[in-house]
Amino acid sequence: QADTAAGGRMRLETVKIRHAHMYCGLGGGAKGMNRGRAQVGNLQAQFECIGGIDVDAAAVRDFERLSGVPGTVMDLMDREQYVDFHGHQPPTDWREAVPADILRAYGYRHPHILFLSAPCKGFSGLLSAAKSQSRKYQSLNALTLRGIWLALEAFKDDPIELIVFENVPRIATRGRWLLDQIIGLLRAYGYATAETTHDCGELGGL
Fold first, then answer.
1. Rounded Cα–Cα distance for residues 117 and 121 (Å)
2. Where are the alpha helices (DSSP H) in 4-134?
3. 124, 127, 132, 136: CA torsion to nearest 10
4. Which of 51, 121, 112 is nearest to 85 (CA)?
5. How far is it, in rounded angstroms, from Cα 49 to Cα 69?
6. Of 149, 140, 137, 108, residue with least CA distance to 20
7. 3 state SS of 9
8. Which pLDDT band holds residue 145 (cuts at 50, 70, 90)?
9. Which of 3-17, 29-43, 123-137, 153-167 is predicted with the least confidence, judged by mean pLDDT?
10. Between the CA atoms of 139, 133, 130 and 22, what dihedral angle is there, to the nearest 10 degrees?
11. pTM to 2 decimal places
């Protein structure tokens, strides 16, 4: 799309930037990105959400309402993680998610941005250090690594340009071992990485 202003001013070209969400929750991240605006020279960005994945059906319904696009209810745990977290075997109709499921959830479209807001309970300061070491919460923590691996494998032939992984501050200490694995995995797939901290009270006025 192009727009020419009166008087011969700069002609703007609109470029669509597609974003997808994993552990999408109720869709706050997707709504925020949809409202994003960017302009560099004569290029302006229009953000388009192409889907979200979460294990919670109620959260996915909220995601669909806030993002305006369909979401997918999907359990991203492997079998061992499922058993460790729930304390029993999964139902007979349950199966482990594979990279093809990620492609299907996003309508076989390529996202330019992937936003992951993985479960943070095991890293939160609201949980005691002793409890965070239990098999239940270690399996939940490890889900963060599995989700990123699924996404990297799904789009390995056409890598996502930007992957944004959000979590609580204590992942940098309590989850250091896991964060190092995530960074190593991203680098193995050819990504440059940056580990940063942000105060949402300052950024969003929360």
1. 12
2. 28-34, 57-67, 79-86, 99-105, 129-132
3. -100
4. 121
5. 7
6. 108
7. coil
8. confident
9. 123-137
10. -40
11. 0.84
Q: Which amino acid is at 110?
A: H
Token pair 């789009």: residue: 155
In sign, the C-alpha dihedral spanning 108, 109, 113, 119 is negative
φ, ψ at 125 (rounded to 5°): -70, -10
Burial of 203 (0-12, 13-18, 19+ CB in 10 A): exposed
Q: How far apart are CA 75 and CA 166, in angstroms?
A: 19
HSE (side-chain half, CA atoms, 13 Å) at 101: 17
30: amino acid identity, one letter: A
